[in-house]
Design a protein that fits this description.
By secondary structure, this protein is mainly beta. About 10% of the residues lie in helices and about 35% in strands. The longest helix has 10 residues, at about 1-10.
């Protein structure tokens, strides 16, 4: 029971893919609230004058510096994996928007908009996913450059030559203040014989007490990575 309670506390507020985690553990921005857009699977951020942002499927949403939204996601498909797209928004700088709900189809995560907004992001950039196992130098823009660490789950075609998104999971560990990041292939998962597409990893967080990276997912048990960041730690 102690591990269960500790795990719950550890993951509180840690971003996971939309729309599920925006329903259960949405980040808080003062003066705004998250609302489901009917049965479309999309989620809107609503302020005093109406919606300013609509989030599609499989986007990760976090809060930095209290009032900024850090959002990232990755397109899927193809023999070479897409980069991770990262955007930073100041909701107060976005204009209230009107939208046609009929355009927000259930399959929008594949061929439709991932984010809808009117205005300009505070920052936007992409992180390549084709190099694993070695550091990549990258100049992160402000305000992301002030973060000590950023953990991102992604797919990398360099993990497995087969063109599949289910068995090429990687963990991107970014150190924005040091202008670098590195991808670690998740051997424990990619070679673990899971029911890929049904059992999957959703979010990760570093335990400040032990320094270990913990993770959880859909229909899989919570896990802890060892120092390689590629395999599971042995149970104590």
């Amino acid at each position: 029971m102690r591990f269960f309670r500790e795990s719950q506390d550890l993951f509180r507020g840690v971003p996971g893919p939309s729309p599920w985690y925006l329903r259960a553990d949405a980040p808080h921005i003062a003066g705004y609230e998250w609302r489901q857009v009917g049965d479309t699977g999309h989620t809107s951020l609503v302020g005093p004058s109406g919606p300013v942002l609509i989030v599609g499927w499989y986007q990760y949403v976090s809060v930095i510096e209290r009032s900024l939204l850090l959002i990232w996601g990755q397109r899927y498909g193809g023999p070479v994996t897409y980069p991770i797209s990262v955007l930073v928004f100041e909701p107060a700088l976005l204009s209230p928007m009107g939208f046609d709900r009929s355009t927000l189809r259930d399959n929008a995560w594949r061929d439709g908009p991932r984010l809808l907004y009117e205005g300009t992001p505070v920052a936007s950039f992409e992180l390549a996913t084709v190099i694993v196992g070695e550091p990549v130098q990258f100049a992160f823009p402000v305000p992301v450059s002030r973060l000590r660490e950023l953990l991102i789950l992604c797919c990398s075609s360099s993990v497995d030559r087969r063109p599949t998104d289910e068995m090429n999971l990687a963990l991107l560990v970014a150190h924005p203040a040091d202008s670098a990041y590195q991808l670690y292939q998740q051997d424990w998962y990619n070679q673990g014989g899971f029911d890929y597409g049904y059992e999957w990893v959703t979010r990760v967080v570093r335990n400040p007490r032990t320094g270990r990276i913990h993770g959880e997912g859909i229909r899989i048990k919570p896990f802890v990575l060892d120092d390689s960041l590629r395999r599971l730690a042995q149970a104590p």
